[in-house]
Amino acid sequence: MDDNKHRNVKIRKAKGRPMLTWVGKRPLSTVKAYPAQLVESFSAATRAFENCEAYQSDWPDKFEAGGLLFHGDNKDVLAHLLANGFRGKVKLIYIDPPFDSGADYVRKVQLRGTNGTTKVDGEEYTLGEQIQYEDIWANDNYLQFMYERLMLLRELLSNEGSIVLHCDNKRSHFLRMLLDEVMGSEKHFKNELIWFYRRWPTNTPSFQSMHDNLFWYTKSNDNSHTFNKLYEQSSERTLSDYGGKRLTTVETEDGSFVKRETEEVSLGVPMRDVWEIRREHTRSSEHTDYPTQKPLELIGRLITSLSNEGDLILDCFVGSGTTCISAQKLGRRWIGCDINKGAIQTTAKRLHKVMLEQAKAIDEDRQSKLVEDENTPLVKIIPFNHPLSPLDLDDLRKEIERRPEEERDITIVCLGLELKARAWVEDYNRTRPINKINIIELRSDRKYGGFIKHEPLVASVSIKRHKNKLKVTINDVYSPSIVQRLNMDDGLFLPRSNR
After folding, report:
1. CATH topology of domain 7-221+274-368
2. What residue spans of 202-340 are helical by DSSP H?
3. Order of strands across the sheet with 67-71?
4. What separation in angstroms does the CA of 447 have from each of 133, 439, 441, 444, 488?
5. What's the pLDDT tens digit per position in 73-99?
6. pLDDT of residue 169
7. What is the pLDDT of residues 334-372, one digit of tens each?
8. Residue 18 in contact with residue 100, Cβ under 8 Å?
9. So what's the pLDDT on residue 198?
10. Per-domain residue ranges of the chain
11. Is the bond preceding 18 in cis, omega lying within 30 degrees of 0?
C-alpha cells in the first residue's frame, strides 16, 4: 500500500442488544486508513519472547516485532492497524478513555524539550486534542466518539480475546450499553470489576466515591477466551471451616446441588470482582506527573489473567503508559497510542527505563551462566580399546595450547592407564594453576566405575591321563566380574560385617 494514500477498511455491523440511540448516531461500515505517525518501535527485551513462535510468525512484516507507540487520533491509528495486518491479532484490549466530565488534562501535562520541561496550554493543541483530553464535549458527541472506536477495537480482537473498559460512575451506564451493542450482551459480558481505593476524606453532601468500574467483555460467546485464574489470600475462617480444603457447589445429573472438595486452600480463594489496590503514591518510583496514571498492579492483574506470554496487548488511550509498561514486564507484545504529546513522551520515557533494566538483567543472567559454564570441567574420553598413555596426554596438552582463553579444568575418562601416564599428570598439575587434569579410571574408580572391572576367571581343575588322552574335570568356577555385579545389586556375597 502506498503510504501517501488512504485505504477503505470495512467494519462489521453491531448486532448486540439493547441499542442505544443519540442525536447524530451514525453506523460505521467503512473507515479511511491513513498513514499513522509511528513514534517509536521497541524490540523485545525479555526472555519470554525468545522461544515464542507466535512472536515471530504472526507479526506484520511492515513493523518491527515487539512494541509500537503511535501519536495521533486513535481512530486513525486503529484504522491503520486494521489495514496493515493486525485484524484479529489482539488478545487483550484495555482502554481508559476520558470520562471525568470537566477534567482539564491537557493543561496539567508537561512536555520535555531540549531546554528542559514546559507546561503547554490547550491552545497549542489541535481542536481534536483539546476536545479529547479536556473532556468537555456534549453527551451525543461523546457517545458517537466511543461508539466508533469500540467498533474498530472489536475488529482488532482475536477470537480468544477480551476487552476491558475502565470508567467511573459518571459515564458507566452509557458505556455499558455501548459495549452491549458492539460486543453483544448475551454470553459476551463476563464481569464488572470494581477497583476500590482509599483517598483523603472530603466534605461533600454525598457518600464519597472511592471506586472505578471496569467492564470485561469477550469476543467469543463460547468460553473459548483466555482466562488464567487468579487467587487471593484465604481468610482464617475459610481455613478453619473447611480444614484446609476448599468446597465448591456443583450440579449433579438429577438437578440437585452438592458441595464438592476442590484444590487445597493454600492456593487461596479464586479472586473476586472487588479489587482493593492502592492508587499510585507520589513517593512511588513508578509515579509520574500524569494526572490519570493507573497502578501497575491493577493493569498487571488484567494482563496476567486475560493473556499469555507473547500475546499482543493494545491500549489506544495510553496516557502515562502503564499498560505498555506492564505488558513489557510480563513478556507480552504491545501497541499504544495517544493524541496527547505529553502522554507519548511520558510513555516513551518510562519504556526506555524498563527496557534498560530488562537488558541489564538479561546481561547479568548471561554472565551468571557463563560463570557456571566456566566452573564446569571439560571432559576427554580416551578410546576404551587401550589404556591412557603419555601419548594421549601429549595430544591433550597440544589441544589446550590451541585454546589460550580456556581456563577450565579437564576430566579424563579412561579404561585403564599406564604408570607413566599417572606420573605425567602429577607432574603437569604441579606447575599448573589452571587447566588441571583429573583422571577417572573406570576399572578401579569405585565412585564412577568398578562395575566393569575385568578380572580373569578362576577355576578349580583336575587333569588325568588316560592312555593317549587327557581327561579334564572342572571342579569349581569363580568369576570376579559376575560376583562384583551381584554385590552391587544385592550385596549377596559380601561378608555380613560389610553389608
Report:
1. Rossmann fold (3.40.50)
2. 236-241, 296-306, 322-329
3. 37-42, 67-71, 333-338, 312-315, 90-95, 157-167, 211-218, 189-196, 274-276
4. 74, 12, 10, 9, 12
5. 999 999 999 999 999 999 999 999 986
6. 87
7. 999 999 888 999 999 999 888 888 878 877 776 666 666
8. no
9. 87
10. 7-221+274-368, 231-270, 378-434, 458-498
11. yes
The predicted pLDDT at position 56 comes to 59
Q: What is the pLDDT, as a whole number, of residue 482?
A: 63
Coil, strand, or helix at residue 173?
Answer: helix
Question: Which of 97, 81, 66, 69 lies closest to 35 in space, CA to CA?
Answer: 81
Report the predicted TM-score, pTM, of the whole model to 2 decimal places.
0.66
CA atoms of 12 and 152, how far apart (whole Å): 9
3-state secondary structure of 310: coil
DSSP code per residue over 231-252: EEPPPHHHHHHTTTEEEEEEE-
| Cell of residue 279, nine digits | 492508587
Q: Measured between alpha carbons, how far apart are the two ends of the chain, in Å?
A: 82
Phi/psi at 85 (nearest 5 deg)?
Answer: 100, 5
Instruction: Write phi, then psi, for 464 (nearest 5 degrees).
Output: -130, 145
Name the DSSP class of 497.
G
**CB–CB of 334/313 below 8 Å?**
yes
* 473 to 269, 460, 464, 468, 476: CA distances (angstroms): 80, 9, 8, 17, 9
Residues in the chain, total: 499
Torsion of CA 138, 140, 142, 146, to 10 degrees: 180
Residue 44, pLDDT > 70, answer no
Which segment of 30-34, 195-199, 452-456 scores lowest on mean pLDDT? 452-456
> Which sign, positive or negative, has the C-alpha torsion 319, 325, 331, 335?
positive
Q: 93: part of which helix (H) or strand (E)? A: strand 90-95
Written as nine digits, the cell of 431 is 606447575
Q: Helix-strand-coil percent breakdown of the chain, rounded to 5? A: 30, 25, 40
DSSP 254: T
Which are the contacts of 386, defined by CB distance < 8 A and separation ≥ 6? 416
Reading the block at residue 389, the C-alpha cell is 598413555
